[in-house]
Amino acid sequence: MHLTRNEIPVKWRVQKKGTKYVVTTRYCKDKSIPVLVALRDMLKLGQDRREVEKILDMSKIKINGKIIKESRYPVTIFDILNIGDKNYRMIIQNKKFSLEEVSGKEANEKIAKVIGKKVLKKKIIQINLADGRNYKTKEKAKVGDSVIINFKENKISETLPMKDGMKAMFLNGSRIGKVGEIEKINGKEAIIILDKEKINAKLINLMAVK
């Protein structure tokens, strides 16, 4: 599927001038951008879709340690994009998706929010993450918490609970991408201290971070 340039979400860093249509992602459409856009429009690795797809066909692009060849593959918040010896983390800066270069060590893990949880046979716990991943784990993560995924071991290495005193990032609204401290959680809402200001926010719009 495609979008016209006028329909492109404001979080995408895409020029308004160019070809009439821009590809969308296969899933997580409201929370991600296509790897094509990340490579062409953000990293300037190709002038058009054809050039970027040639790069993808060379098996030199990885996302979270996995070789990616499809131009519509989604890149979500905190995903790690690897190109040769360069590593980039997807973040939100000034209300738009941005790529920041990170070290090789930092590129071995990412943070993801827990959006679902169920008990399988033999009391094995499976948690569902906002980036589309599912993991069987012994970590005591709750829905609304965040977890750290270790790519080398392909497992969850740590839980970041959504609780008082933790840091939290805004995922939506005018404060998207900003990080504050949770002062108090009240049911489905929390009081966040951001720039010395106390703000009421819904937990669904927050993500626990380091």
Elements, N to C (H/E) = EEEHHEEEEEEEEEEEEEEEE
Portion of residues in beta strands equals 35-45%
CATH T-level fold name of the largest domain: Structural Genomics Hypothetical 15.5 Kd Protein In mrcA-pckA Intergenic Region, Chain A
CATH C-level name of the largest domain? Alpha Beta
CATH homology-level superfamily of the largest domain: RNA-binding S4 domain
Structural class: mainly beta
**Radius of gyration, whole Å:** 18 Å
Explain how this protein is built.
Strands 5-4-7-8-9 form a five-stranded antiparallel sheet, with no helix packed on it. With 210 residues, the chain is mostly beta strands. It has two helices and 19 strands. It folds into three domains: 2-102, Roll (Structural Genomics Hypothetical 15.5 Kd Protein In mrcA-pckA Intergenic Region, Chain A); 108-160, OB fold (Dihydrolipoamide Acetyltransferase, E2P) (Beta Barrel); 167-209, SH3 type barrels (Roll), CATH 2.30.30.
Key features?
single chain; Structural Genomics Hypothetical 15.5 Kd Protein In mrcA-pckA Intergenic Region, Chain A; SH3 type barrels; mainly beta; 3 domains; globular; five-stranded antiparallel β-sheet
